[in-house]
Each structure stands twice: as C-alpha cells, then as structure tokens.
From TrEMBL:
Keywords: Membrane, Transmembrane, Transmembrane helix. It is a multi-pass membrane protein. The chain crosses the membrane at residues 12-31, 46-64, 71-91, 97-114, 121-139, 145-166. Residues 48-160 form the Integral membrane bound transporter domain. It is found in: Membrane. This is Fusaric acid resistance family protein. It comes from Asanoa ferruginea. The keyword Signal does not apply. Pfam families: FUSC_2. One of its GO terms (cellular component) is membrane.
Length: 174
C-alpha cells in the first residue's frame, strides 16, 4: 500500500468530518425535531435517529452520482419493506414465523423487481421494523411509516451533504 499524499489525507479527513456531522444532523432531526411532531416513545425516537443516521451513512459515496444511486437503492429497499410490513402489521402483530417469512418475502420482492442489490437491505429493514413493532408502545402498523420517514430524512441529508461536500469542500482541498 502506498502512502497517501497530503491532498489525499486532507480529503479523507474532510470526508470523515462531513460524514460525522451529517450523521449527527440526521440523528438530531429525527430523534429530537421529528419527535416533537410525532412522539412514539423515547426508545423509538432514538431508534429512528439511528435509522436516519444509517441511511445518511449508506448514501455517502465518493461521487454525487454514486450517492444519488445509493439513495435510490436505499429508498427502493425501504419502500419494499414498508409495503410488506404495513400490510402485515395492519392485521397481525409480530410473530417469529412471520418474521422469517416477511424477511424472505422482502428479499424475494427485491430480486423479482430486478433490484438484487436492494434485496438484502429490504430484508434488514423488514427485520428492524418487525422487531420495533413488537417492543414499541404504539400500534404496530405505525412502525413502517415511522421508519420510512426516518429513511427519507437520512437519505435526503446524505445526498445533499455529498453534493455540498463535492462542490464546496473538495475543490478547496486539492
């Protein structure tokens, strides 16, 4: 491995700082600001903040095009999970067998829609939504809606900060 140039070190540090700050922004907006609009429970608010931060991290890539594509992928996977979990949770509560079945269905839908890269993320999202629906004090069917909102916030922040970083910070570091 070659040693990094001073320019590469500056870019790496700047990108890491931007990633950390954008994750804090996503977490704060979701766990504190959004919680004022809709309060579920503090645990759910913290989970929502974490979920938004993870979405921000997920879309942070080397180029704006890559970040945008990752944002589309994250939203696609979340929408797959959203539909499956919402339909199920409107009628039935969490159950171990449904957990496995819905994770499998989420992955299959991603594959059948021609989005194999989204299948795993859809399955992970389904697992989170179902478990949170079992431990949250509010109606289980609300969890897919809340996690969709968290994801939207995180993806928007991630894509915007990727663009700002590439347009405003990178040119000054090279």
């Amino acid at each position: 491995m070659r040693p990094l140039t001073p320019s590469q070190v500056r870019v790496a540090i700047a990108e890491s700082v931007v990633l950390g700050l954008s994750s804090v922004l996503a977490f704060w907006l979701t766990s504190d600001v959004l919680a004022r609009v809709y309060f579920d429970s503090r645990d759910s608010d913290l989970l929502g903040g974490m979920w938004a931060a993870l979405s921000t991290i997920f879309v942070s890539r080397a180029t704006f095009r890559e970040s945008y594509t990752a944002g589309i992928s994250r939203m696609s996977a979340t929408l797959i999970s959203f539909v499956i979990c919402l339909i199920y949770l409107i009628f039935l509560p969490f159950h171990l067998w449904a957990f496995g079945l819905l994770i499998g269905i989420s992955g299959a839908v991603g594959l059948l829609l021609g989005r194999p890269g989204d299948a795993t993320t859809a399955a992970i999202t389904t697992a989170v939504v179902l478990v949170v629906s079992a431990i949250s004090p509010v109606a289980p069917w609300q969890q897919p809606i809340l996690r969709l909102a968290d994801t939207v916030i995180g993806v928007i922040i991630g894509v915007i900060t990727a663009w700002l970083s590439l347009k405003l910070i990178h040119p000054r570091l090279r």
